[in-house]
Amino acid sequence: MNLSASDIYTLYRPSKCERRVFLCAHGEPEGEPSEFDKLIEELGRRHEANHLATFSKYLDLRDGNLPSRMSKTLEAIERGVEVIYQGVFQASLPNKGNRIIGIPDFLIKDGNGYKIRDCKLSRHVGEGRHEEIILQLELYGWLFERNLHNPPTALEVYLGDESIVQLPYNAGKSALETLEQIRELSQQSEEPYSPVGWSKCGSCGFRERCWTIAEEMNDVALVYELDQGTAIALKQKGVTTIEGLLRHYNKESLAELKKPRGNKMVRVGTTAERLLLQAEALTSGKEKLLAPLKLPIAEDMVMFDLEGLPPQFDELDKVYLWGMQVYGKRPGIFIPALAGFDAEGDREGWEEFLKNSETIFKEYGDIPFIHWHHYETTKVKSYVDRYGDRDGIAQRVLNNCVDLLKITRDALVLPEYSYSLKVVEKRAGFKRTMTEYGGDWSIVQYIRAVETHDANLRQQIMSDILRYNEEDLKATWAVLQWLKSKGEHSR
Fold it and tell me: What domains, with CATH codes, occur in the chain?
């Protein structure tokens, strides 16, 4: 069998999964890529093309079959061509005979040798992040050394923020160990176990397949907040189902269970009790109130929700919509703050948010700002660092922020696999009017709005995004009212 650098990505992206390697090797069909996945791919191509355009001269080796491209790559290096784009190397996996193929984005003349550079949308690599990038570059280095009998002068990554980071080279040791693992997984006759996870499986092409199987077998990995290491440790003890977890463990014995975490083995510890409560809720289908819900007490409250671009989509980690609406005894209208589409648009959106917040404070005083999870507070803090805090308005918002997810998780156990707003709002009986929605959907639509030159189309797209954000606020309010109905609460 042939192996390539892309096989490393199969193992690691969107998150590390041995099962995905097996399924790909055995021809299991993947689901169609989402519009979000397509957008990521397109942005990756643009990022690479933009970097290519910075070189005045280069040898383009994209065309032709692999043997021809490999031959031309070696010839070009021998001639000392300054920049080689999409060259090809191949070698055999030591002691196995499997052919390994690598296609680095750039080979760049560097003194008497060449450095290897690859383009990635990611903005950070190393320190436990994006191991797949490090392994891929390391494999390119090993292939270069096998073919040229000298190592590359450097391994570099051109990141999404246009910075260049140099990576260490250890003669391919880690990359070859990973390829050996991939080879063994690909040749197994039985599908390996790899726990499902809400975020782990989110954008994987096999998500629907694997989650269907997990639900049919009542896989213990479905328990909310039961991490991958705990699921693997339980599997090694013969416990694979939620019922098995409840049958074989109590909170004391589960707390003592050792699980892998990085290169260490650690105890499950104090999370054991909550995991068992979640397992009981999934088995019974019933909610369980653990303590009074510590909900804010106020006649009026601001529902607060942001829509933002992750770093790889923009020169900034940009919030393009700051959505707020007052609910309660004196309800207000939906007041969004939109980032503009020009160079100053990000700052303009922030300033509009501060203005809207100031208006709310003037009318309602120190009113609670209700949000779901910590994204909103994280972004407000980052924008204070970026643009400052006029008259302390942002700090006043932060002082009044209330994370409704934390309140829910601290006091209530739900028979759900996730506590995302989209899941909890359904338990609260909230029904959306839009058929397409979600964070990824919003990002795709916003990128479409940024890139179109059709003013009418842009207006329609932004109208849809505003409608989605407004429904997020309505959903947050509906969940808050539902939580209030669960019983007495205190501040």
Answer: 2-187 (3.90.320.10), 218-286 (1.10.150), 300-484 (3.30.420.10)
